[in-house]
Amino acid sequence: MLLLTDEMRLPALQRSFCIWLEKIREETSGRPNIKEQLADSKGEISTWTEVVRAALGRANHTWPSLFQAIAEDWGTGGPKDGKKAQPQWRGVLGILQRTLGSTGVLLYPSHPTLAPHHREPFMLPLNFTYTAIFNALGLPVTQVPLGLASNGLPMGIQVVGGLKMDRLTLAVAADLERAFGGWRCPAEIL
After folding, report:
1. C-alpha to C-alpha distance for 100 and 161, rounded to whole angstroms
2. What is the pTM of this model?
3. Which helix (H) or strand (E) element contains residue 85?
4. What is the pLDDT of residues 157-190, one digit of tens each?
5. Which helix (H) or strand (E) holds 190?
6. How many domains does the chain have?
């Protein structure tokens, strides 16, 4: 198999959260928002009241759903001049599609650190965008286990392909898994 590699800098991925949020809004426009859904379509929850309840251990909703409600609160504004902005996600998808085509893949971290401790992701809630951006763009991604780090934590990477190139991401993932040893049990099972 011929392998040509290039390091690629994609400044647009620094805006992954905003792009993800924009795409989610587009996909869900005309549907009940998350705050209505959490209130069983009987009005809306009070996001910040629910956050306080959750912090006190009296949550009615999960932290991820509350973070989504907060994101919804933050992003309700639009362009101040009344003009409709060209969606950012289209530009990022275009760049990735031109770069990857039908034969390229992007190896991209699944998370900015090794496996986080339990509940640690709640303190860094935007780290999910390492995977969410490609989901929002509709690109195929295959997660590859790469073995264990020296401290025993699992390592992995995601293989991102161009549109409808699932078979390519799966083939590359299988090769990487074979080369690096794939999944290993991080601890002895009793």
Report:
1. 7
2. 0.78
3. none
4. 999 999 999 999 999 999 999 999 888 887 788 7
5. none
6. 2
